Amino acid sequence: MSRIEIRNLVKMYGAHQALHGIDISIQPGEFCVLVGPSGCGKSTTLRMVAGLETISGGEIAIGERVVNGLRPKERGIAMVFQNYALYPAKTVYNNMAFSLQLSRMPKPEIDRRVREVADILELTPLLERKPGALSGGQRQRVAMGRAIVRDPEVFLFDEPLSNLDAKLRGQMRAEIKRLHQRLQNTIIYVTHDQVEAMTLADRIVIMRDGKIEQQGTPDAIFHDPDTVFVAGFMGSPPMNLVDCMVTPTGLKLGDSEIACATPDGLRAGARVICGIRPDDIRPAADQPGRATATVPVDLIEQLGTEKLVHFRAGQHSMIGKTGGRVDLAEGAPHPLAFDMAHAYFFDPDTERRIR
Amino acid sequence: MIKTRFTALALAAATALTPLAAQAAEIEWLQWFAAENTDGFYDELVADFEAKHPDITVKLVTQPFGKVRESIVTDNAIGVGSDVLGLNMPWTKEFLDIGILEPLDEYLARDDNSFATSDLVEAPLGKIDGHTWMVPLNAFPFVMHVNMGLVRQAGFDAPPATWEELAEQAGAISALEDGISGIGMPFSSQPPSNGPILTFLPLLYAHGGRIMADTTPNFDNPEVVATLQFLKDMNDAGAIAPGAASRTGGVDLEEFIAGRTGFMISPGVHSSSITSRNPELEYTLVRVPTNGETAYRVHGWEIGIAADSPNKDAAWTFVNYLLSPEVNARAAKAANALPGNLAALDAVREGADETLLKQMEILSGDTPVEEMRQSPKAAASWSVMTEEIQAMLRGDQSPEEAAAAVQARWLDLAG
Amino acid sequence: MTTMLRQMTTRGTPYLFLLPGLVILGALLSVPLYKVVEYSLYDNVIVERNPTFVGLANYTNLMTDPGYWSAGFNTVVFTVGSVLGHMIVGIGLALLVNADIAPRARTFFRSMLILPWIFTAVVVALNWQLLLNPFGLINYMLQWMGLTSEPLDWLGDPDLAMWSLLLISTWRGYPFIMVSFLSGLQTVPRELYEAAEIDGAGFWHKFWHVTLPQLKPVIFGVALLDLIWTFQLFPLVWLSTGGGPGRATEVLSTLTFRLAFVDFQFSQAATVAVSILIISAAFTLLYLRNEARRL
């Protein structure tokens, strides 16, 4: 269990700068998820922590040690790869035992550790198989087992679930969470899936174009986004983000006007990006007393427990939600209530939150 | 219906082709001569012939000496043999047994030949199985090429004339400096693996020895043993270039041309490549050192006609052209050799250089010897000599044992 | 009935197109094969106008000929030695030229190292004869480094000739192996090396635990192929040593050639050729089975 300090980390590929001074401070035992679209630099950051990429600037410390010049094996880390990277010619047992064998641990001790971890991960019946004879989920567990047996200070996960189907992904997600609760190791976990980020993380770091967009607890990230990007990235279906005009009484959105309170700094006539989550747009009948607008509903998506209501407001496509049993007709105008108390306002130029 | 139409077609094709075939004959000439000539003489020769005989075209097929023998046999076996063949006397009996060669008696007896048979160098004409099988394009004795610079450096003013002098001078030259040797002996097993007939036989003949009694192997005689002993003594004294067992004829020649060996025993024709490739070399050639005998191994480039040739008359026309005194003189000069047609001798002597004149002197006075042409397995027998001499130089057997071993293996081959 | 006929013609059409090729290929393979086997059953051919059928006499001759067994032994030594040499040098160089260096330098080294492959056997043999000559570069270097006092006749000494031949054969044959392994190396997932690095593996461990197992199918296939080729390799041996000195480097292929073209014993040569054929065919079957298993 170690703290990880990443200070002003820079990565250059020739003249191209991939990371622009990243600062992350991870507490011992914290589960930190790096999330962002592909190319944002999250994997590069992880690989630099692992020692698989050279560091162009800044420093990384694991525990009290700066590890910039250390080889991967000297950093006290273990890593789970996206494609598992299991040794195809070795049995599950030997895949898991390999690092211990290399460190010349006595055989009985290796055996004890491997069997213990195999037991935790329910791999015991598979120990003599080769990776080729395992299912995707089993391989994933072996990859994790290989990391766990080493009892590292830090676990690094590089999109470990992206090769699994949706159902298995859900199971494995829970398993990883449970494992973390049990082992309490410090974890850096890279994913592009915001659900994984939300469910697993103690701390989420959202990255974009080699910079940190925002970091904080899942709650803070979800409910208190700093930027348009963060607001739009987290949450499914995503937050509605629409260009509006500020009026003395509220907002003008295309032809519709919605009465609401706006931040003090905004004067009438100013342009603003208003963000409101689909959960906060409900049929008017469900939420009497809220600001309502009658809008043309052009598509209903039935998800079971709820329905997504696609409608148009001015030039914008927006999404609202309703209960699964509510009957709504496509193609007809329908009054919807907007819970503007939970609306967010962003500066259209800087894309930063106006509080 | 279909059948008759096919026959008609075939007939039409045949009639269309026949006059063509009669009009122009194309003959192939397989030889190694052009491979040993650098100035394109043979292309000019062929062009000259074609100008004089517009109805015949000659295709020059040139291969290195080491490959020609195999080519003749394989081409013959699959029926694509050349019409005119460059030949080497030792191959005669072998080729006869396969039936490759056309007897030339009838052609030699023709009235309209450009030469008189009695003018030709005699050795290759000698009848085997009752017939003559080849004619000489040229002839040359085996000689000893001498690097006079090294001889002088070692403190002598004249090349060696006797075995004793050879051993003394070769030893002295070897002692000069690293990388310089007295004499080269190409006893590599690498094909054609014929080092002994290039170097050992000329020394043996100069000692008055022979290896055949008529057509029977006669290798374990005192002269052979003495000659082997001479080689062994020179080798033990360090007079012979190291690595004889891996030295090929080609390397031997290159080393001499590069000035790293004092002496080289080989055909006289090599003098032209030596002088043209390294004009700086202080070079001369002499009779192979003797012990009083003046017998020399004779060699030459022979010409024959393939028994399977469909154009034997055209082939003979070309051979006849090559043997005419005027052409033969040119061919001899180009190879720096003596003419196969002795009527061309005067023409060759005119303007000939010293090395050629020396060869003429050897030819005119000394006794020519060629024994290999009687051997039914010439190539195999010289391979055997090579292997046993290698073993002797290595110290694995004495000269007597080597001689006995060769004799036994030859009898086995003939058996 | 007509449908069946139509089906047959449609199914047959591809084979019809293949027919000319198959006939030519079949003739090119089967005629010489048949001829060689036929030749081996006569007293002699080509040089013999009226060959006599002698059954298996040539084979019994062979079995009792110490020359044949010694050539067979040399062939095994030469083949196994060459293949081992090719493998070791080929894998080593493949690793080196697969290294992460400047792409231009890498291309340069790769093309340089392929060079031995493009020379004909004649050139290779001649060059090595010069290098291995008692006055050649190799002896000069060895003496300069003080490893030998006297120049060695590498190709002319029966104790050294086979080693020298193996050296030449290794030099000549490694590029094919190197290229095969290079393409094999490029299919090894990068992540495996990274995983091994994190597991604490150094160069040799990575080579042993990642590279080698990944290359195993390639190694097996290429080694077998190389074995088949080298087993019947003729020109390089014939041109480098001619089987000598004595018969120290005589292999089955040079023995065949010697019997045929030096001794003109074509039937006996055909017999040796058939024995080579049988052994090569066995290896080829093994190779095909290996390939089939990989598919």
Automatic annotation (TrEMBL), chain A:
<dbReference type="InterPro" id="IPR017871">
    <property type="entry name" value="ABC_transporter-like_CS"/>
</dbReference>
<dbReference type="GO" id="GO:0055052">
    <property type="term" value="C:ATP-binding cassette (ABC) transporter complex, substrate-binding subunit-containing"/>
</dbReference>
<protein>
    <submittedName>
        <fullName>Carbohydrate ABC transporter ATP-binding protein, CUT1 family</fullName>
    </submittedName>
</protein>
<dbReference type="InterPro" id="IPR047641">
    <property type="entry name" value="ABC_transpr_MalK/UgpC-like"/>
</dbReference>
<dbReference type="InterPro" id="IPR040582">
    <property type="entry name" value="OB_MalK-like"/>
</dbReference>
<dbReference type="InterPro" id="IPR008995">
    <property type="entry name" value="Mo/tungstate-bd_C_term_dom"/>
</dbReference>
<dbReference type="InterPro" id="IPR015855">
    <property type="entry name" value="ABC_transpr_MalK-like"/>
</dbReference>
<dbReference type="InterPro" id="IPR027417">
    <property type="entry name" value="P-loop_NTPase"/>
</dbReference>
<keyword id="KW-0067">ATP-binding</keyword>
<dbReference type="GO" id="GO:0008643">
    <property type="term" value="P:carbohydrate transport"/>
</dbReference>
<dbReference type="Pfam" id="PF00005">
    <property type="entry name" value="ABC_tran"/>
</dbReference>
<keyword id="KW-0547">Nucleotide-binding</keyword>
<comment type="similarity">
    <text>Belongs to the ABC transporter superfamily.</text>
</comment>
<dbReference type="InterPro" id="IPR003593">
    <property type="entry name" value="AAA+_ATPase"/>
</dbReference>
<dbReference type="InterPro" id="IPR012340">
    <property type="entry name" value="NA-bd_OB-fold"/>
</dbReference>
Automatic annotation (TrEMBL), chain B:
<keyword id="KW-0732">Signal</keyword>
<keyword id="KW-0762">Sugar transport</keyword>
<keyword id="KW-0813">Transport</keyword>
<dbReference type="InterPro" id="IPR050490">
    <property type="entry name" value="Bact_solute-bd_prot1"/>
</dbReference>
<dbReference type="Pfam" id="PF01547">
    <property type="entry name" value="SBP_bac_1"/>
</dbReference>
<comment type="similarity">
    <text>Belongs to the bacterial solute-binding protein 1 family.</text>
</comment>
<protein>
    <submittedName>
        <fullName>Multiple sugar transport system substrate-binding protein</fullName>
    </submittedName>
</protein>
<dbReference type="GO" id="GO:0042597">
    <property type="term" value="C:periplasmic space"/>
</dbReference>
<feature type="signal peptide">
    <location>
        <begin position="1"/>
        <end position="24"/>
    </location>
</feature>
<dbReference type="InterPro" id="IPR006059">
    <property type="entry name" value="SBP"/>
</dbReference>
From TrEMBL, chain C:
<feature type="transmembrane region" description="Helical">
    <location>
        <begin position="12"/>
        <end position="34"/>
    </location>
</feature>
<feature type="transmembrane region" description="Helical">
    <location>
        <begin position="108"/>
        <end position="131"/>
    </location>
</feature>
<dbReference type="GO" id="GO:0055085">
    <property type="term" value="P:transmembrane transport"/>
</dbReference>
<dbReference type="InterPro" id="IPR051393">
    <property type="entry name" value="ABC_transporter_permease"/>
</dbReference>
<protein>
    <submittedName>
        <fullName>Multiple sugar transport system permease protein</fullName>
    </submittedName>
</protein>
<keyword id="KW-1003">Cell membrane</keyword>
<feature type="transmembrane region" description="Helical">
    <location>
        <begin position="266"/>
        <end position="288"/>
    </location>
</feature>
<keyword id="KW-0472">Membrane</keyword>
<dbReference type="InterPro" id="IPR000515">
    <property type="entry name" value="MetI-like"/>
</dbReference>
<feature type="transmembrane region" description="Helical">
    <location>
        <begin position="71"/>
        <end position="96"/>
    </location>
</feature>
<keyword id="KW-0812">Transmembrane</keyword>
<keyword id="KW-1133">Transmembrane helix</keyword>
<keyword id="KW-0813">Transport</keyword>
<feature type="domain" description="ABC transmembrane type-1">
    <location>
        <begin position="72"/>
        <end position="287"/>
    </location>
</feature>
<keyword id="KW-0762">Sugar transport</keyword>
